[in-house]
Each structure stands twice: as structure tokens, then as C-alpha cells.
Amino acid sequence: MTALAWLIPAALTLGMMGLAAFLWALRSGQFDDLEGAKWRAISDDTDVAGAPPERGPAGDA
Amino acid sequence: MEAALDATTVTHELKAATRQTVVLSVPTIVCGNCIRSVENTLRTLRGVEAARANLTTRRVSVVFDPALNSMVDLTAALERAGFPSALLADDAETEQKARVSELVPRVGVAGFAAANIMLFSVSVWSGQASDMDSSVREMFHWLSALIALPAVAYAGQPFFKSALAALKSGRLNMDVPISLGVLLATGMSLFQTMRNSDQIYFDAAVTLLFFLLIGRALDERMRTKARGAAENLLGLRAKNATLIESDQTTKVISASQIKPGMIIAVAAGERVAGDGEVISGESEIDESLISGETRPRAVSTGDAVYAGTVNCGGALRVRITAAEENTLLSEIGRMMLAAEQSRGRYVRLADRASRLYAPAVHVLALLTFTAWMLIGAPWDQALTYAIAVLIITCPCALALAVPAVQVAAMSRLFSKGVIVKAPDGLERLAEIDCVVFDKTGTLTTGELRLETNGNVDTVALGRAGAIAGTSKHPYAQALAKAAREEGIRAHAVDDVREVPGSGLITASGGLEEKVGSAAWVGAEEGLASIWYRAKGKPAVGFDFIDEPRKDATSCVSELQRSGYLVSLLSGDRREAVEQTAAVCGIEGWAAEVRPDQKLQTIEALKARGLKALMVGDGLNDAPALAAGHASLSPASAIDIAQNAADAVFQGELLQPVIETLALAKAARRLALQNFAIAIIYNSVFVPLAMLGYVTPLIAALAMSGSSITVTANALRLRSMKLHLPEIGTSP
Residue B630: its pLDDT value, please? Predict the structure, then answer.
């Protein structure tokens, strides 16, 4: 029983964390352009100066 | 969009006040390098603060300062970099986004809840056989309830809302039994949890929501993709216009900014950006997209011109008139409205199934309850069995049967360049038994080709082609192209003078040479489309034909072989239509057909009990497209036609028409198969449920099993070999 008292909250918390991470990623537009993201990952030039970070306004468009 | 702007306004309040965000459609973004060059091109422009390209939607969103830069500069810069682009209406974009992101978080929540409840349920199921004590079981049930209640309340909303709306209007749709099943199962399980019983269906309720939401989200996603692609196609057609301001200076604006009363300049070869009236200049207008007529129409001061037509002759000034003042457009608009109303509301397959299914489910559940009560079971046991019936029949498979097939069919068509826009388009396409084609731009390519008939005066063609190469008139361009294709290498001619409405004249060869209309060169009227004459020699005429698409003949004969009634309706003149009909092997054809007559023909076919597919591209086809049982339009079609069509096909060939019909029929077959699978599942498990043998474990297995089977069956469509079935042989 004591094992359950630890394990159940731990399992639920981990699950909730996963859900929260998914919802955060969704809101911040990380699933908006899966095609583009795979190219950006291998592109070796960094974004030009003055460009917005990854979560720029365009990412949320 | 706004949330992100808000975040940055904290630090750049003044700056942000002048910012504007626009979304441009850039169809040529196809790889990682394109993303980089598009973004870098835009970011180096003055006043542009941010640019981010999206490879999935082929769009780029730009934040810029309208005071420092204008929309037109953005598109011009992209055009120079090799990426033609167009501004998209912002509302549509944001609306779509709102709809997609409503379903996906619900999928996430339902998935999380389903997985965690399953964890407890599996423990209970396995514990029942061994030594789980009842206090642990009770705790597990309470934990399941804790997860299930908020999850159902949140994730179930799309179904509850839709069911409520259907009930309010006195209809039954698939969402009614779903909502009822989920709500009753959750409520009953909560009650049983309080009583510490073991008939707990939280897992079934949440898993059901999870599966159904996945289906809905995929369906929605495919439709958003199709809608976006359709908008991208249209976006590029709306080009810029040259505005003439009151002080006679010119300014380039985007076509969407044109308002009635403005005066625009339309240069030779340009597309007219808006409907209006010519106030100065003389020219010829190619109206093949409006009327199907391939021969240009002469216009001068006072004549009306329509958006989407091409100016072939001299420069024109056009005063834009409002759409309602425009007789042709408003007439087409009225006809389309009437046609859409007469088409009526098509009842989709899933809704038709649910009309039979939903009452049957509810009656069965009620029957179970009363029967158990009558034989003396306690009320809660009777209710539990009734709910088990609801959960087992809960149309997991039925509700997935159609969407799963549609998503598979739409994505297969999408990869072939066919964009299905209407939600019920595929289902209506599957019922077609006769096909009505438009000629210009649909059966034909809409491009002019020189008719050689085997013998051509190559010397005259070479010379005429070289002179014609300096003009933007479609006949002149076609002549120059024909000369190139014949392999004639002619010296470039300079010093050519163009007389709008008549033709070209040059003396550069030491001899006066003319290319143009019969009157211009002094030849007999009506024998040829364009003439060439060197002074003192007989005139040489060249005739053009609007060539059928490469596979038009084979497509028509394939349709006819499969039993489709194929006919041709065109606004073009008799000889041209007769010739095309003969080449393609179409027996039923009509020429010089007005838009209202096209509409009447479709209505007449409908009255004969035929379900007509209209394929057309012009403004004159739009009412018929709206009236047809289903409609297709090539990507080169005018925007009104594309909007009226159920699907748009891209490319030079007519083959997509056949592929679309074949796939629509295959999709219908698979959807019906899926219904059959769902019914087989039900006929096995419903009697068990009615007799009270269904435990929560069996319910969970039955539901997942049937959902996975129908989805797997739908996925067969992706690799299925397709052929056009004969009419009457397929269900």
C-alpha cells in the first residue's frame, strides 16, 4: 500500500507533465510547420540579426 | 497572432503600434533552401521586422512597418527572388487556425485520460481474478472518476455541442448517440463508484472520446489543408493593378485594394484586375474565361470589361464599377444563388446512417432496461445493462467509418493535385452518372495553336512570327510560338509599330510588311484568324485552334466505356465546338450556350433522374457548377468557378477527372464496407450486452477492436489499385 501511495501520484504527475508539455508545444506553434521544421533542423545558418526567436509572431500565425 | 504581438508590445510599445502583419501565399516554397531565401529576402527589406515561412502551408507571414514599406514592395521583392506571391485575406486564416487548435488539445487531454484510466482499469481487471482487496479497488475507481469527469467535460464538448444543435433543430445525428452514451456511461459509473460496485465504464467512455476525436482532428486537418491549397491557387490569380490617381500619377496596388470609382490602367497583355467600364483606349479583350469564346472582343470607350479577362491590344483605362452595378456578374450571382438553393441540402452518408441507427440504439437500450425490470431485476442493474448496450453500440466504428475513408481519399487525391473542397463533395462525386464538359479551358488547354493542316508557308510564317514576337496580342504570341516550334530561325525584327485593334507594321526588311486582321492587310474577311502580307505579294492567312488537352479523347472514351453520358456545352461559336466534339468523340454537344442555358441543361438532366458532374472553368459555367450534382474545375479557372466547384484539379491533363470519380466510388465502397463491419460487431456484442454478459473489459475490447478494424480498412484506400467502375456495377 505504501508503494501505491508513492507510485500513483508519481505516475499521474509524470502524465500531467507530458500533457502540459504537449499543450505548451501546441500553443507555441511548434506543430504548425512540421515540414519546415525538419529542414530548419539541418540548416546551418543561424537566423539573421534582428530576426525573431523561434517563437516569433510568425510561428503563432 | 495577437497574443504574440502583445508579448512584444511590452517592450516596443510605440514601435508595435505601427506594425502590420500579413500572410502571403508563396506556392513555390518547396524545400529548406526556399524557406531560407524567402525569409532572407524579406528580412533585408526596409521596415520588415520579422518573416517566417511555413513549408506545410506554403505561406509566409511578415511583420512590417506600413510606413516604411508597402505590401506591393514585399511581393515585388519576392517576385525578383523567384517566388511569386499573393496576399491572403487574413480573416480566413485566423478562423481556420482557431478551428484546428480546438480539436487537437482535446485529443491530447482525452489521450492522457484514457491512458491513465486504463492503467487503473487493467489493474482492477487483473486484480479481480487474484487478490486485490476491495478498498484498493474502490480507490482505483475513485481515481479513475477523478480523471474521467474533467476529461469528459472538456474533451466531449465538440460532440455535446453538435448533438445539442441537432436536437434543437429536431434532427438526429451521429453525435446524439455518442453524447448520450458517453454521458450516461460516465454518470452511471460515478453512481456505481459511490456504491462500490464493479460495473465501471470510465475507461470505455474516455477511450471512445479519444478515438473519435482523433478521427475528427484528422478530418479537420485534411480539410484545412485543402482549403489552404485552394486559397493559395486563387491568391496567385489576383495580381496587382496600376492605379491612376487624380493627379495622373500611377501607383501599383494589390488587386484586393481596388474599390469602385478608382481608375486603373491595363497594359497590353495584362489581366484586367476588376470589373469596370473603359474610359479611354481601344483594344481587344480575351474573354475566354467569361464566355468561353476564344476570339477576342473589341472594346472601346463605354464598354464593360470583366475581372479575369486579358487585354490583348492597346493600353486601356478602366473605371472600376461596383459588382452590383455590373449586369453580367450580378446576373451570374443571382443564377448561382438560385442553383444552390435548388440543389438543396445533401444528406451525408454518415447522417443517413445515423437516422436509422440512432433510434435503433435508443430503442434497444430502452428495451433492455424494461425487459430486465419486468423479469424483476433491481433498477440499477437494469440500467447498467441498458448502458452497456449504449456503450457497445456507441458508434465508435460507425462514427469513424466515413471520416477515416474520407481522410484517406482526400489525401490520396491531394497528392495527385486534386483539391477536394466541399465536405460532402466526395460522396456526391461517387453518385455521378453523366458528365458535362465545358470546352474552352476545360476540354481544351485554352491556348491557341496554329492549325497547319500539313502544309505551311514556312517563309511567311518565319517572317510573320518574327514580327509578331514584338506584340503581346494572343494571336501574335501564338504565331511567334508556332514559328519557333516549326524550327524556323528568323532574324529579329525591330522598329515594329503596333496599331491597336488592327495589327503590326514594319519596314525594317526594306519592304513594308503587315501582320494583323484581314482588314489591316487587305484580305478577305473570315477566312483566317491572322494574316501576313508583304507589300505587293498575296496575303497569307494563319488559323488557330484551341487544342484539346492531350488526353481529352482517351478520357472521354474511358468515361463513355464505363457508361457515363458525356456531353459538351460551350459558349464558343459553332464550328469551334463541333470540331472539338468530333475530336473527343462527344455526340451530345451544344454551342453558343448562354450561362442560363447551361444551367437549364443541368436542370433538365436532373429532371431526367441523372446526376450530372459539371466540369468547367469560366464565369459562364459558374451557375451550372453550382447546380450540378457535383462539380470540378481546373486550377486555371476563374475564381468564381473555383469557388463554386466541389474540387479543383491541377495540371495539363484531364485524367484527374477520371481519378477523382474512381476514387470517390472506391471511397463510397469502403465506407459501406466499414458500415458492414460495424454492424457485424454490433450484432455479436449487442445481444451479449442485452443479456447482461458484457463486462467493462469486453466493452473496451469490442470498441477498440471495431475502431481499429474500420480504420485499417479505410487505409487500404491509400494503396488500392483504382479503375473507373461501370455505372450500376458498384453499390
Answer: 92
